[in-house]
């Protein structure tokens, strides 16, 4: 089956240890049926033919069916099932995402292919590497993009000189010092104005005497 699924082949070849790649074809019957079912359910709810409570119950049942199908298609090991979706089946990604199922799908462009990945129903993220996309879908933490970078660098490429994000504590102390300096200047200015006013009043009183 993998031989007929380019995205699944690439995802499997990436060799992400904690990912269990599931070709979409293995769960396509269930997912397609649930996509159609949820569309009908939303229409019935908008028309008032189904109560909100009943719609929520039916949606939960639908989510359960999708999750069961993906779990059954997996290898059963302690790894995150990641459904590999082909471009022609992208319309079913929303069904998987709403079900909390991790997935990766190819997004062909003019010159190269990009990949979108979602972990456990969270928002999708874009990657130019299938390995990074599968790792993200399987729950790996994505490194932050530092100022001046377009993509987070691989840690081994930096070695001991890997860039570090600014310390939150240091940033807080710097901001606190800046605000304190502003307050000190404002206080000094207020005292100077009071002293000037007092000197003016004393001069007026001395002239009246």
Structure description:
The chain has 209 residues and is α/β, with parallel strands linked by helices. The protein folds into 2 domains: 160 residues, no CATH class; 44 residues. Helix content is 50%, strand content 13%. The chain has 6 helices and 5 strands. A 5-stranded mixed β-sheet has the order 1-2-3-4-5. Helix 4 links the parallel strand 2 and strand 3. It is elongated and about 100 Å long. 24% of the residues are buried.
Question: Helices, strands, pairings?
Answer:
Elements: H1 6-13, E1 19-23, H2 28-46, H3 52-73, E2 80-85, H4 93-98, E3 102-108, E4 113-118, E5 125-127, H5 130-137, H6 168-208
Parallel strand pairs: 1-2, 2-3
Antiparallel strand pairs: 3-4, 4-5
Helix pairs in contact: 2-3
Any descriptors?
209 residues; alpha/beta; 2 domains; five-stranded mixed beta sheet; 6 helices
Cα separation of the termini: 108 Å
Number of helices: 6
How many E strands? Answer: 5
Element order: H for helix, E for strand: HEHHEHEEEHH
How would you characterize the largest beta sheet? 5 strands, mixed
Neighbour order of strands in the largest sheet: 1-2-3-4-5
**Average of pLDDT:** 81
Q: Which secondary-structure class do the elements indicate?
A: alpha/beta
**Helical residue percent?**
40-55%
Low-pLDDT stretches: 155-159
Overall tally of domains: 2
In brief:
By secondary structure, this protein is an alpha/beta fold. Helices cover 50% and strands 13% of the residues.
């Amino acid at each position: 089956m993998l031989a007929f699924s380019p995205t699944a082949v690439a995802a499997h070849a990436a060799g992400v240890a904690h990912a269990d790649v599931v070709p979409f074809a293995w769960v396509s019957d269930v997912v397609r049926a649930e996509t159609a079912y949820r569309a009908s359910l939303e229409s019935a709810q908008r028309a008032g033919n189904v109560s909100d409570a009943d719609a929520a119950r039916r949606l939960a049942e639908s989510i359960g069916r999708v999750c069961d199908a993906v779990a059954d298609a997996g290898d059963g090991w302690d790894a995150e099932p990641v459904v590999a979706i082909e471009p022609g089946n992208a319309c079913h990604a929303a069904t998987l995402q709403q079900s909390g199922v991790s997935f990766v799908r190819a997004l062909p462009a003019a010159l190269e292919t990009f990949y979108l990945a979602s972990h456990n129903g969270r928002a999708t993220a874009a990657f130019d590497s299938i390995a990074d996309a599968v790792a993200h879908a399987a729950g790996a933490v994505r490194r932050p993009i530092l100022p001046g970078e377009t993509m987070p660098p691989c840690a081994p490429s930096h070695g001991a000189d890997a860039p570090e994000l600014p310390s939150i504590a240091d940033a807080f102390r710097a901001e606190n010092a800046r605000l304190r300096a502003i307050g000190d200047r404002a206080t000094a200015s207020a005292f100077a104005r009071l002293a000037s006013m007092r000197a003016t009043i004393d001069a007026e009183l001395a002239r009246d005497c």
